[in-house]
Amino acid sequence: MSEKPWAGRFSLPTDKFVEEFNASIHFDKRFAEFDIKGSMAHVKMLSKQKIITDRESEEILKGLEIVLTEIKEGKFIFKTEDEDIHMAVEKRLKEIVGPVAGKLHTARSRNDQVAVDFRMYLRSEIGEIKNYLKLLMKVILEKARQEIDVIMPGYTHLQTAQPILFSHYLMAYFEMFKRDYQRFTDLLKRLEFCPLGAGALAGTTFDIDRDFTANELGFFAPTLNSLDSVSDRDFALEFLSSASICQMHLSRISEEFIIFSTSEFAFIELSDDYCTGSSIMPQKKNPDIPELIRGKTGRVYGNMVSLFTTMKGLPLAYNKDMQEDKEPVFDTADTLKASLKIFAPMIEKMTLKKDKMYKSAKLGFSTATDLADYLVRKGLPFRDAHHVVGKAVAFCLDKKIDLSDLKIEELKGFCDLIDDDIYNFITVEASVNSRKAIGGTAKVSVEYQIEQGEKFLSEI
Q: CB count, 10 Å around CB of 394?
């Protein structure tokens, strides 16, 4: 068992089980590249400020390059006794360059070191997530244009409400994913401040240049308060919150795809390569991918609650509890990226059962509101029109027919304001195309939504 860098004041070696329980190296090794880049910026700053010599800086930098290459090539051996990625890198650096490696840790702490690693990691992950979101939005726009004339039933309470364009339905999710993209973009603004140089909690007595290291690592500026710098995990909480909202959007559309692909609805068919079968029932085609995404949403929510619970009562500044911040974030980033990555091609390869959608759109008296609106335009108060249409619907239910099947004499029997032109308003096509206001489901309105979506993608 190797001696720890902090072992000077201890008379006993770390207990074997304590060492395993305390170690984070098995998961924080994800920070390896960021940790080394942070160390490179730090050592350059130490040299610039004459805290170490140029020659010492060059030796350390060359050693760090070797360590980085070993990690990238999979030759670096991560050991439990090294405790965390910071000590593992420093230990290997010492084996390569000798005692001068010890000067690397001048004017910094593992507290500000992990804080900068975490921020750099999340900047990278968010970049990938935004790329996947952009691809998903692009596929949604393409599908919406391709299927612009397809009519389906729209629902409230999962009951038929009003007919809508399938493209209108898709564009609702485009808006959700657009907001997700904007949330992650906004989070990046709060990740643009570098905690390196905050030390353990109170700063450092050395004449360091924090603006230099911040600029070297691509940050906008250094953080302003050393206590906050090392104890802040708002950025991780905000990431988990934004990721949970995005995963929730994926779960909602997954739920609908699961329902729409049942034999009872039969609105869509998912491509065979995005489904699985049954080990006992040969006819089955199961929508396992949307089901898994729906299921994984629970673990993403759990990760968010986990870190909020960890942070809720922590005194300033750093506490070991905060070692529990990484795994929930790692797992969430992996889960969200995988879900987004698989969803775009699943939508792209999905086929629509357009005739079934259209027939279903005509069920449930989906144009009843259009009849009420017609009467309002004829001068009848809406509440009275609502009552008249309700009676007409009850009559149709008894006769097992649709409103559009009623003869003009039957319709006039409910209200003498109804004229022959009523049939221009109570078909599903007329219902859809009448809703031309911005945000409506008319073709012209949905085309405008698609144009605005394309404009958004072209500007990001």
A: 10
Residue 153, φ and ψ in degrees, nearest 5 = -75, 140
Q: What is the pLDDT of residue 384?
A: 95
Tokens of 224: 């302003």
Catalytic site positions: 157, 278
Q: Report residue 204 as tokens.
A: 């450092």
CATH 1.10.40.30 domain position(s) in the chain: 363-459
Angle of helix 234-260 versus helix 326-349 axis, rounded to 10: 30
Could you tell me if 108 and 197 are in contact, meaning their C-beta atoms sit under 8 angstroms apart?
Answer: yes
How far is the C-alpha of 415 from the C-alpha of 382, rounded, in Å? 13
| 197: helix, strand or coil | coil
**The total number of residues written for the chain in this structure:** 460
pLDDT digits (tens, 9 = 90+) for 372-396: 999 999 999 999 999 999 999 999 9
Q: Which fold has domain 111-144+158-356?
A: Fumarase C; Chain A, domain 2 (1.20.200)
Q: What is the spatial distance between Cα 417 and Cα 376, in angstroms, rounded to a whole number? A: 10
Question: What is the token pair recorded at 242?
Answer: 């934004």
pLDDT at 5: 67
DSSP 153: E
**CB–CB of 51/207 below 8 Å?**
yes
CB 414 within 8 Å of CB 400: no
SS3 163: strand
Rounded Cα–Cα distance for residues 7 and 12 (Å): 9
